[in-house]
Amino acid sequence: MLGYSVRRVLQMIPVLIGATFIIYALTFLMPGDPVAALTGERPLPESTVAQIRRAYHLDDPFLVQYGHYIFGLFRGDFGIDFFGRPVLGLILERLPTTFALALTAWVLKLFIGLVIGVYGGLRHGRAGDHFALVFTVVFMGIPGFVIALGAQTYFGVHLGWVDPAGTRAGWPIAFILPALVMAIEAAAGLARLTRTSLVDVLRAEYLRTARAKGLSPQRVVWGHALRNAMIPVVTYLGLSLAGMLGGAVIIEAIFNIPGIGGLLVSSINNKEGTVVVGIATMLVLVYLVFNLLVDLTYGIIDPRVRL
Amino acid sequence: MKRPRKLAAAATVVLLTATGCASAADEGSSEGGVAELSFMATEPKSIVPQKDIGSQIGMALCANLMEVNVETQELEPLAAESVTSEDAQTWDITLRDGWTFHDGTAVTADSFASAWNATATGSNAWQGNGTFVAFEGYDELNPSDGSAPATETLSGVEVVDDTHLTVTLNAPNADFPKLLSTNPTCPLPASAFEDPAAYDEAPVSNGPYKFASWDHNQQIVLEKWEDFQGDPGFSGGADRLVGKIYTSIDPAYTDMTAGNLDMIRNVPAPMVEKASSQLGEEALFEVQTASKQQTLQIPDYIEELKSPDLRKAISMSIDREAIATSLLKGHSTPSDSLVPPSLASYREGACDACTFDPEEAKKLLESAGGFDGTLVIESNSASEQQLVQAVATQIQDNLGIKVKLSPKLGTELSERRNNQELEGALFGLWGWAYMSPDQYLSQYETGGDGNVATGYSNEKVDALMEQARGEQDEQASADLYAEAEALVIQDLPAIPLFIPTDYGLRSECAELNDVQGDLQYYRAGYAC
Fold it and tell me: Which CDD domains match (chain A) (predicted)?
C-alpha cells in the first residue's frame, strides 16, 4: 500500500508541470496588453510602462517567463499581481469560501443522490423507481443557472428566508441555498449511477448465494450489495468534489459569493497571467489530491487494485 | 466630476422577475437608530483616491481644495480658502486654517505638495499620474526613455508656508480649479508615506466621511466625520455608508429588490426598463446633466477612411432617431455635436452631417469616389453590442457598403488603440473628469487627452484650444471652444452618435443627487 501511494504521489509532479505549462501558454497567447488595462483610458507614461514590463518579465520570450514562474512556484512563490499584491494571498483570501460552498454542496449532493439512488435501486421497476427517475431527469435537464436564478428569486426575494446575494450571514445560512441548488443539479447524476450500479449488483450470482445461505435481507443489501455497488460511485464522488469547485464559479456569480470564481473571471479579463495561472494551478493541485484520495479509497474497498 | 474615463461601458445580463421593496436602513435603525445607506461597490484594487481616480469611496474620504457644492451646483473652494491666478498659469492657493485629517493632524500645504509629487512620479504607477501632465516639472518625473527620474518633486509646485502654495503650469489653463476637485489632487497625511501598506488598508483623509472598516470581498464601511468643517452641500445625509461588494450588477439588483441595498449607479439600459416595472418609477433616478457621449471614432492613420465626404456619408446614413426610440427606448438622445449639450460651448446642430439623409449620403459617397472595402467597426465586447449592431446595419443598408463588426476584449482593444493599430472605426464612450469643453475637445488636439484613438491633428484647432484654455472669462472661452469644434467637425474624425441618459436606482431612504452629471453615493440625502 505504501509503495502504491508513493508511486501515485510521484506521478503528480509531471502532471502538475504539464498542466501549469498549458495554462501559462494559453494565458500568454491571449490577445491584449495587461499593462494597457491598468489605468483605463489615459495611458501611463512610457517610462512607467517600461518599468512595469521589466518588473514582470513581460518582454521576455515565453519560455523564459514560464521559467521564472515555475522556479518561483517550487519555492512556494506564486508571484504578485499588477497592484503588487501577492497572488497567494489573493487566492487564500477566497479559497476557503469556495471550499465551504463546494463541500456543503457535495455533502448535500451525497445525501440526496444516495438516498434517491438506493431507493430507486431497491425498488427497481416499481412506482417509486419511476418517480425517482422522473425527478432526476427533470433536474438533469434544466440548466443549473435557471434553477439558481429561480431559487434566488423565490426564496431570497419573495419569501425573504435568506439574503439573495452575498455571504454576510456567514456559514451555513448564506451557503444553504446556493449549495442546495448545486447539490440538486449534481445529485441527479449520482442517483442514476447509484441506482444502475445497485441494480446490476442485485442481479449478481453471489447475491443469490448470499440469499440462499439464509442471510437477512438487510445483511444482503448493506453488507454485500451496497459495498460492491459503491465502487464506481466512490470514483465518481471523489472526482465530482473537484468538479464542484469548478462548477461553483457560476453559482458564485449568481449568488454574489466572494470565492475564487469571481477572481478568476476578473483576472482573465485584465489578462493578469500570474493570478490566472495561480488559481488554475491551485485547482489542478486540488484535483490531483482528490484523485489520489479516490485511488487510495479504491485500494481499501477493492483489494485487487493494490496489486 | 471625477468620473473615470471609459471608452467602453459595462455589459449586462438579464435576470428573472422579482418584486418587493424595503430598506436596508430598517436593519440599521433596529441597531440603535443609525441613518445607514448602503451602495453597490466592487472589491476595489485600492481605496486611496490617488490610486483609483473614479473611486466613490475615495471621494467620500477626501475633501479636495475645490468641490462642487450640491446646494448651489457651483464649484466652490472647500479645503482651500481661495484659488486665484492673474494669468491662469501661476496659481496661488490659500488653505483654510485649522483643518485637520481624520486623525487630528493638520492639513498643510505640504500635505498637498507631497501627495502631488508622489502621484506625478511615474515609477509609482499610481492611476492618477496623468492628472499632473499640465504641471511644470511633470516631464522630469516621467522620463520618456524609461530611466529613473533624477528628482522627486514637481518643479511647478512650491510650498510658501503652512497654508500657502503656488502651482505653475506648463501653459495657461483656466480649468485648473476644476482639476483640483478630482481624486488625484487629494491631500495625503504624513502617515501615508511612513507606512504605505497600512495606509492602503485603512486610509486617513480629510473628507466628510472617515474610514471605518474594510472586510475584503464583503463590505467597506464609512462613518460620518463629526469634525468636518465644510458646508452640508459638500457632504451627505447618512451617518453610516456601507459599500456592499458585488461581483457584478445583477446580484446587486436582486439584493435591491429584496430590500437589502439602497443605491446603485450606472444602471445599464436593459435594467432601467426592468427596474421601472419591478421597483416602480420612484426607484429610478435620472441624472439631468448629460456627461457622456457615444461616438464612432475614425483613426486618421487609416487612408481609406480619410475623406471627410466619406465620413459625412457614413454619419448621414445612420438614423439616430429611430435607434434612440426603438432599441434604446428613449434612454438616449441623438447627438448633433462633438460635446454633450450640458457644456457651455455646445451649439445646437453643430454637426450638420448628423441628420439622417440617405439620399444625400449616397451622393456624398459618390463624390468621395465610392468605397469598395469593408468598414470595420471595433468595439469593446463588454459594451452595448446590440447598439453597435444597429448602427452597423444602418450604415450597411442605407449606404450600401460592407460593414464588419469586430468586438474585442478590453485589454486587447486598449492595446490596439494605444499603439494605433485599429483596423477601422472605433465605437467608444467618453465621459468627463470635470465639466469642461476641454475634456471633450482635447481628443482632437495633437497629443491631447484621448487623442491617441484617432490621431487627429490640426494646427488651427491646436491654437484655438490653447487660447480657449487660457481664457478665464467663461463665455469667451466657450466661444473659442465652439470655434475649435466647428473646425474639427469639417474633418469629422469622430461621428457623434448618442448622448446616453445616466440612471441610478434608490430605495425609499436614499435621495440621490446629480453632482454636475456625476451621481455620488456619499452625497445622498437620508429620507427615513
Answer: TM_PBP2
In chain A, the number of structural domains is: 2
Q: Does A256 touch chain B (CB under 8 A)?
A: yes
Do residues A206 and A108 both lie within one domain? yes
Provide the residue range defining the domain that includes B329: 292-501
Domain boundary among A25, A47, A75: A75
Query: DSSP states of A256-274 as a string?
Result: T--SHHHHHHHHHHTT-HH
Pairing of strands B332-334, B494-500: antiparallel
**Residue B154 domain-assigned?**
yes
Residue A161 DSSP class: S
The label of the residue with cell 484535483 reads A287
How far is the CA of B15 from the CAs of B43, B248, B252, B254, in angstroms?
A: 22, 12, 11, 8
> Is residue B195 domain-shared with residue B301, that is, in the same domain?
no
> B4 in a domain, yes or no?
no
Indicate whether A94 and A56 sit together in one domain. no
Q: Rounded distance, CA A164 to CA A173, Å? A: 11
Say what the pTM is.
Answer: 0.84
Which DSSP state fits B299?
Answer: -
What is the rounded CA–CA span in Å between residue B485 and residue B491? Answer: 10
Query: Residues B358, B363, B368, CA angle at the centre, nearest 5°?
Result: 120
Residue B9 gets which letter from DSSP? P
Q: Which residues contact B110 (CB under 8 A, 6 or more apart)?
A: B159, B162
Nearest to B418 among A36, A160, A266 (CB): A36
Measured CA distances, B305 to B32, B336, B355, B358, B487 (Å): 65, 21, 20, 19, 18
Given B127, B216, B244, which is nearest A93 (Cβ)?
Answer: B216
**SS3 (DSSP) at A8:** helix
Cell of B500: 446616453
A222 is a domain residue: yes
Residue B394 placed within a domain? yes
Could B125 and A156 be called an inter-chain contact, meaning their C-beta atoms sit closer than 8 Å? no
Residue at which a domain ends, from A35, A51, A75:
A75
Which of B411, B419, B421 is the mutation pick for testing A, counting most A CBs within 10 A? Answer: B411
Tell whether A94 lies on the interface with B, counting CB pairs under 8 A. Answer: yes
Query: Which string of b and e fits B99-118 if b means at least 16 CB within 10 Å?
Result: bebbeeebbbbbbbbbbbbb
Neighbours of B202 (CB within 10 A): 12
Considering CB atoms only, which of A32, A47, A256 is closest to B411? A32
pLDDT in tens, chain B (528 residues): 333 343 333 332 222 223 333 333 344 344 457 899 999 998 888 999 999 888 999 999 999 999 999 999 999 999 999 999 999 999 999 999 999 999 999 999 999 999 999 999 888 888 888 899 999 999 999 887 767 788 999 999 999 999 999 999 999 999 999 999 999 999 999 999 999 999 999 999 999 999 999 998 899 999 999 999 999 999 999 999 999 999 889 999 999 999 999 999 999 888 898 999 999 999 999 999 999 999 999 999 999 999 999 999 999 999 999 999 999 888 999 999 999 999 999 999 999 999 999 999 999 999 999 999 999 999 988 878 899 999 999 999 999 999 999 998 888 888 888 889 999 999 999 999 899 999 999 999 998 888 989 999 999 999 999 999 999 999 999 999 999 999 999 999 999 999 999 999 999 999 999 999 889 999 999 998
Which chain B residues are closer than 8 Å to A52 by Cβ?
125
For chain B, what is the radius of gyration of the CA atoms?
24
The closest alpha carbon to B335, from B327, B323, B344, belongs to B323
Task: Report the gap between the CA of B218 and the closest CA in chain A (Å).
Answer: 7
Is A83–B130 a contact, with Cβ atoms under 8 angstroms apart?
no
Q: Are residues A19 and A101 in the same domain?
A: no
Which residue of chain B is at minimal alpha-carbon distance from A261?
A: B247
- To test the contact with chain A by mutation, choose from B414, B421, B423 the residue with the greatest count of A C-beta atoms within 10 A, namely B414
- Residues in chain B with CB shorter than 8 Å from the CB of A155 are none
CA nearest A81 in B: which residue?
B45
